[in-house]
Amino acid sequence: MSLWRRAGGGADVGPGTLIPASELAEAVAGLAVEDAERVQVVAFAVACAVRDADDGQALPVLADLLVTTSVAVDVNEGTLINLLSAVQYASLLPTDVRAGWKPPAEAVASLVRRGLGSSEALREQAEDLLGALVDEDLADDWLGRDATRDLVDR
Amino acid sequence: MLRGWLEPRQLARRETAFEEAERWILLVRDQDGVSGPVARSFPVRKRAREDRTARVDIEIIKGTAFARGILGA
User: Fold this and answer.
1) One pLDDT digit (tens) per residue for chain A, 154 residues
2) Chain B within 8 Å of A20 (Cβ-Cβ)?
C-alpha cells in the first residue's frame, strides 16, 4: 500500500511524493478507527497531501477523516498532531484553492478540544490552530459559532 | 544545522518559526519524544502576504524522534 511507502515502508517513493486523492479517499473509507497505527499513517498522508498539493483535492478526504476520527474513543498523539496540522494546512491554502470548502465544524471543534486536553505540545498546537483560524477569519465557519465562543474565550 | 543552509534573508523571514519549532521540540523531548509518522509545521504568521508562504516543517517519517536520550537534558 503506497501510504506505507510514504511513511517509510518502502524505498520507491521519496519524501514529497504525492499520493492521489482518490487513493487517500479509499484508505479513509476503509479505516478501522481501533487500528491506531494505521489511523496515524493515514492522517499523516492526508496532512501531507493537503499541504503539498496545489489543487485542494485532498480537502474532502480530510473532511471525511475528521468525521471518522471524531467518533473514535482513543486517538493517539501522533494522529492528533497530524490532524491538527492538516486543518492548519487547509487554513493556509489560497482562498481560490479552498473554493468555499469548509471542514465539518463539530469534528474540528472536537479535535481542538482533544488537543487542548492533551500534552503541553499538543495544547500549544491546538492553540496555534485556534489563533490561525481567528487570524484568517475562519473560526466561526470552521468551528461553529458556539464552539468558537467557548474555545477562543475560554 | 538547517539554519546554516539558508540565506540571511530566508533565515530572517523564518526566525519566529524556528523559535516556535525549537520550543515544540523541547516540549516533545520532555514527554520522551514522539513516534512517527507525524507532520508539524510552523508557518510565519501575521506578516506580509509574501511571508506567509515561509514556514519551518518537521516530518518524522519513522520511529521515535526528539526523545531526551537523543537531545540531552
Assistant:
1) 444 455 444 444 445 567 889 999 999 999 999 999 999 999 999 999 999 888 899 999 999 999 999 988 889 999 999 999 999 999 999 999 999 999 999 999 999 999 999 999 999 999 999 999 998 899 999 999 999 999 987 7
2) no
Cα–Cα distance between A58 and A52 in angstroms, integer? 10
Query: What's the complex ipTM?
Result: 0.86
Global pTM reads 0.90
Among candidate residues A39, A147, A139, A141, the one with its CA nearest the CA of residue A47: A39
Identity of the residue in B41, B45, B61 whose CB atom sits nearest the CB atom of A85:
B41
Q: CA-nearest residue of chain B to A38?
A: B37
Q: How many CB atoms lie within 10 A of CB A22?
A: 10
Interchain pair A135, B28: CB under 8 A: no
